[in-house]
Amino acid sequence: MPDGKTHRRVGAIAGAVYAGCRAPTEAATNLWLESFGGAVGGSIGGGLPDLMDPPVSPWHRSLAHGVAPVGLLGVAWMERLEEWRSRLRAEAARCSALKSDATSFARVLWLTLFEWFCRIASGALAGLLAGYVSHLVLDAFTPRSVPVFG
Predict the structure, then answer these.
(1) I need a surface site. Which of 14, 26, 96, 109 has the fewest CB within 10 A?
(2) Residue 37: half-sphere exposure toward Cβ, Cα within 13 Å
(3) pTM reported for the whole predicted model
(4) How far apart are CA 34 and CA 25, in angstroms?
(5) What is the pLDDT of residue 149?
(6) How many other C-beta atoms lie within 10 A of the C-beta of residue 92?
(7) For 23, phi and psi rounded to 5 degrees?
């Protein structure tokens, strides 16, 4: 049975890969930042089901592990994901453009950090979902499997 550490590690890998695959046209630096964000989001997403349904026994799996409720939320998340990521990418591009007019080091630093934050957050949104799904996939291959409805 996978433990929390395994769920977080696999979630981080799934999140990084998924976020990277969702950003094929981004510049190399932006791709790396979004993939890093995907790893962070994936690690968090990989642990979420057990946070919501604590593993106090092998029969702990309930609504947060249910294929149907998680599937419905996943579909809703996917419908909005590109809109959210587009907004974050646009804000990152705006910060990048503003750096050329910045006159102080502090302003350039702030704009750079905020640009990176937007890129990492964009990847984290994709990674969170991938990490959550990876948790369910790992649990599906245990003797208890995952419930359909919770």
Answers:
(1) 109
(2) 26
(3) 0.90
(4) 12
(5) 72
(6) 24
(7) -130, 45
